[in-house]
Amino acid sequence: MKVVAKRPESLMDKPTHYCPGCTHGITHRLVAEVMDEMGIREKTVGVAPVGCAVLAYEYFDCDFQQAAHGRAPAVATGIKRVLPDNFVFTYQGDGDLASIGTAEIVHAAMRGENITTIFINNAIYGMTGGQMAPTTMIGQKTTTSPYGRDSKSAGNPIRVVEMLSTLEGSAYLARVGLFNNKEIKKAKKAIRKAFETQKEGKGFSLVELLSTCPTNWGMNPNEALDWVKSNMVPYYPLGEYRTPEGGDNK
Amino acid sequence: MTDKILMKGNEAIAEAAIKAGCRFFFGYPITPQNELPAYMARRLPMEDGVFLQAESEVAAINMVYGAAGAGARVMTSSSSPGISLKQEGISYMAGSELPGVIVNIIRGGPGLGGIQPAQSDYLQATKGGGHGDYRLLVLAPQSVQEAVDLTTEAFELADKYRNPVMILGDGMIGQMMEPVEFGEEISPEDLPKKEWATVGNKDRKPNIINSLSLQAEKLEELNIRLQKKYEKMKEEEVRVETYKTEDADYAIVAFGSMARIALSAIERAREEGVKIGLIRPISLFPYPDQVVGKVAEQVKFMLTVEMSCGQMVEDVRLAANGRCPVYFYGRSGGVVPTSQEIYEKIMELVRGEKE
């Protein structure tokens, strides 16, 4: 019998704790497939955030460190400086990266730290039960923006890749979606490119993945995917914002 | 052994760390410890090491976490307000059982405080500082030479216990110059391999550096294991010096540079026929409570002298456990008690005792 699909070797054989319809599972798989294809699993050290992916170390078959909330880029910096020949990646959500950890991510990019960041933007805090994130859309209802996010009081959502693209140390920056197969393929390509950037020692790389949180958005998985496409993509345009070759490809 | 050279405390600690095989330093500027990172910035590149000025103390301690988890001997240094910022990372290091050396060259507080020497971070250093049930090994040098020796020891202890170790100095220790000699140099390559470190999982299950335990019983298991480790430290790592306590009727308890100043007061009181000795805790955790308790049985009172409003005095009282009165004298905010003040306090208490 011909094998047409199997679990990547870089993923553990165990069920995840993620909610049904959540795109964390897809992202884990894409990262693991890239690790397999590049043959780097045994040389990779991951850094888990605080948030829904706090247990990422349970699912990847590689060495891992769990970091304090927002500090993954600093922890990854420490690892990479000791082990410059290893691959180091952080896996962070929007609360972790774009709120409490803004200093750490900006300065890791500024230094051109040769690490890769997988950034999950689902416009909400998932783990703590659906609070407003810095990436929450205007008008979006959460437990801490029950009348919808109001820009007068809570400001406007942060566009992380645009912000980081002003920094010379950012070698590869891309924003991708996961709302259909075509976009998922593009997402994988971007993740591969980010790890290749690290392999070539070009500097900091980050892929922002527009993701879903059906549970806290109060939607079914399909509605959630549609919501990404119709509400998030117009505000968070997809594309490559910085590449090692120079120029963008939005 | 090398010849003696004249060095500032901050620089001597840095050199001692390099000689102990430390090749990674992450820090952030703050007075009065700036000579330490500056020295590292100059010296580490010569040893193929890494000096990195982080964006904050918070980031610096988390870089220490990452580097320690990757198996390296690693150091950070700061002063009081900066050490407060590092507490999150220190708690995570203790919870994840990571070795590392943290230097606190204390300045007066609270808040932004000042830049003059103080000992007012004693409680923060010895009782936790960050959240959760954890302890650091805390070593307090009284001279530049001792700062060098304790730095070497700090790296050994950190690795032995897989626990962060704090060197607790003050602005005086950091800033003053004294002749020092360094011990033998340790090459990082000669250090034993850390099998638990995250370096890539070739032919083994993944190594995970982590302090998360969502199951209460599992987390309690970790806490019980940590407590056992702290008990072992109490049995094996107490460091204390006593001076003229054998025949003493009274005793002063002081640590760090305060102990040196107290010593002059003790000599003067002895000249006046007052039989007084000194207990100088060198390890502040584990605390030398047996030595303090034993001397407490013999003396009429103890006087704790500190550059604070009275922090270590709580541990002296616990150790004395009612066996003798424990008095306190201290100055704070960066004001250093003089030997004259201490002498007068001794004489006043002795007179009171005799009345």
Short description:
By secondary structure, chain A is α/β, with parallel strands linked by helices. Chain A contains nine helices and seven strands, in the order H-E-E-H-E-H-H-E-H-H-E-H-E-H-H-E.
Question: Which short descriptors sum up this protein?
Answer:
heterodimer; A: 250 residues; alpha/beta; Rossmann fold; seven-stranded mixed β-sheet; 36% helix; B: 355 residues; 2 domains; five-stranded mixed β-sheet; 12 helices; 15 strands; globular
Reported CATH architecture of chain A:
3-Layer(aba) Sandwich
**Number of extended strands of chain A:** 7
Q: What percentage of the residues of chain B does DSSP assign to strands (E)?
A: 15-25%
Q: Quickly count the domains of chain A.
A: 1
H and E string of chain A: HEEHEHHEHHEHEHHE
Q: Which percent range describes the beta-strand content of chain A? A: 15-25%
Cα(first) to Cα(last) distance of chain B is 54 Å
- Provide a count of the helices of chain A: 9
Our count of domains of chain B comes out at: 2
Spatial extent as radius of gyration of chain B: 21 Å
How far the N terminus sits from the C terminus of chain A, by CA atoms, comes to 42 Å
Average predicted local confidence, pLDDT of chain A: 97
Class of secondary structure makeup of chain A: alpha/beta
Mean pLDDT, all residues of chain B: 97
Break the fold down into its secondary structure elements and pairings:
The complex is a heterodimer of chains A (about 250) and B (about 350).
Chain A: H1 24-38, E1 44-48, E2 63-66, H2 72-82, E3 87-93, H3 94-100, H4 102-110, E4 116-121, H5 151-154, H6 160-164, E5 170-177, H7 181-199, E6 204-210, H8 214-217, H9 221-235, E7 239-242
Helix pairs in contact in A: 1-7, 3-4
Chain B: E1 5-8, H1 9-19, E2 24-27, H2 35-43, E3 50-53, H3 57-69, E4 74-78, H4 80-95, E5 100-106, H5 122-126, E6 137-139, H6 144-161, E7 164-170, H7 171-175, E8 177-180, E9 208-209, H8 216-236, E10 240-243, E11 250-253, H9 257-271, E12 276-281, E13 283-285, H10 289-298, E14 301-306, H11 313-320, E15 326-330, H12 339-354
